[in-house]
Design goal:
elongated, 5-stranded mixed sheet, homodimer, 37% helix, 12 strands, 314 residues
């Protein structure tokens, strides 16, 4: 194994780049803007220029670099090619082929950003020490990543780990962004928790500190919950019930060793894990009741870590 | 690769044994009784004696045998050890270690019977040509097997592919065999379809050929459905709706290339696939709508095939 690896997590606005030792130690990290103009044709060359500048700066030679892992905000095929990536303006970009050429043959691998973040958390984050991990990212939406035997389950259409779109309420009348109704994301994301809160507050209720909150948000709900607010507790229980049951269904499919919960909503901390786990245990198939839960620990760096793990043969 | 392999599918009553060429061609198959007396202590030695007799009979030498794959009717740990198998009376049996010793060092691998059947269907059955397969077995219960990249997803507690226990109706009042309520198995197994039929027939309805059926069974329902019976159609639609939606949720987790449907109920044939697929497509996440469906084609031999595939490095 060579000494260094690069992780490049390409987002719609910025590319987060990290220089790592292949042992998992991060040495340096920085960002460059993502230039999506002209169908994003300069994105990979901008990345290549930045990597080369860093190598020169640090005196790192080409044959000291094991490879470059790249995270893409959209579906990625097995070999690392992207047919369409709306967030970058890309059509038919073969990431490893193009970037390897720009980087004088240094090996490149690419994966979907949510999946590489899951891989990163497995490698050096909340799932460290485990090989079979389900990562759940509770942000504006609900994302996920399935890791089995240290490998990403990308899925045949790139939809592996699209757990935000598990149908949890077929009777829902409001549409999800995906066009369907009753997706997990509509209840367990920051947006979903806000919705649950507004619905509850619109009904008859005891006085709640949320009544006078400046803004109803997932954070406000969890803050009130920690202060002992009863209405906030009802909202959290509803969220946790829906998510816990959904995770119990996931366990009947891939039966992970651990669920790692990340994303903005997870900043609520252990109280969130405790609430979700309670409903998970209640709903879980008997042999899966002891599955572990942990908070993600790498934050926005998870993708970079996972990109590096990608080039280590996952 | 050596020329021959053995597949040994151990059931609670008989062991189904197959001699294969490692190309996938079956040469011979036979059965021996499973002797569960004395905590099943003679099962593996009976198997070894039968395999040796066959090798002598066919003039096959030890170094012409790639290995022996074994299917077990219960949870199997990664290395092939079994902590408890109620169906065989086993406690703490390390299948590869014990059988290898009896077979003079021929390599042995073991897996759960439902999982190896899925692997068999992927290798030489309804899922041939695909690497990412979800097998659904509709029998007395509902079993399953998840194959990702030609490998079984066994799960950390042996519960990978336990899709019969996905919760599909949290409001169910009747308990499943697993102790929980509203499992897929309660609706989509032969028993479940019979239940749906009896519930429907107990309600007000137009005349149905099922009213005069000798016995209400999944087969009777599908036979009546094929004859155009309206009440049978309602029952089939209800079954297909529940199963189709459950499969759409599985697709959001592992996103297979193909669903392979087997088990006794699948003898209903293409009409079953058509009904389930209709609801699957309706419920599926957009990028998964084109996932293929096929009937299993190896019947009770699927396990033997999968056992052989196990020893070929899956």
């Amino acid at each position: 194994m060579k000494k260094y690896g690069f992780g490049v997590d390409i987002g719609g606005t910025t590319c987060k780049i990290g220089l790592f030792e292949t042992t998992g130690q991060i040495i340096d990290k920085w960002e460059i803007p993502t230039n999506t103009a002209e169908e994003g044709k300069n994105i990979l060359s901008d990345v290549a220029a930045s990597l080369k500048a860093k190598m020169t700066e640090e005196g790192i030679k080409k044959d000291e670099v094991e490879g470059i892992g790249v995270g893409i905000p959209g579906p990625v095929r097995g070999g690392g090619s992207v047919s369409v990536c709306v967030n970058l303006g890309w059509k038919n970009v073969h990431v490893p082929k193009e970037l390897e050429e720009m980087m004088d043959g240094i090996m490149v691998r690419a994966g979907n950003d949510a999946n590489v973040a899951a891989l990163g958390e497995m490698w050096q984050g909340g799932g460290k020490g485990y090989e079979n991990v389900v990562m759940v990212t509770l942000g504006t939406g609900v994302g996920g990543g399935i890791i089995v035997g240290e490998k990403i389950v990308a899925g045949s259409n790139g939809a592996g780990g699209e757990i935000g779109h598990l149908t949890v309420n077929p009777h829902d009348t409001i549409a999800c962004n995906c066009g369907r109704k009753g997706c997990l994301e509509q209840y367990a994301s920051a947006t979903g928790i806000t919705r649950l809160a507004k619905e509850r507050l619109a009904k008859e209720h005891e006085t709640s500190s949320l009544d006078t909150a400046e803004e109803i948000s997932a954070k406000a709900v969890f803050d009130a919950y920690k202060e002992g607010d009863k209405i906030a507790a009802e909202i959290v229980e509803k969220f946790a019930g829906i998510l816990g049951k959904a995770l119990s269904n996931i366990a009947c499919v891939v039966d992970p060793e651990i669920f790692v919960i990340g994303g903005g909503v997870s900043k609520a901390g252990d109280v969130l894990i405790d609430a979700v786990k309670k409903y998970y245990v209640e709903a879980a198939f008997p042999s899966c009741k002891d599955t572990r839960f942990a908070l993600a620990s790498l934050g926005n760096d998870a993708g970079m870590y996972g990109c590096v793990k990608l080039i280590l043969g996952e």
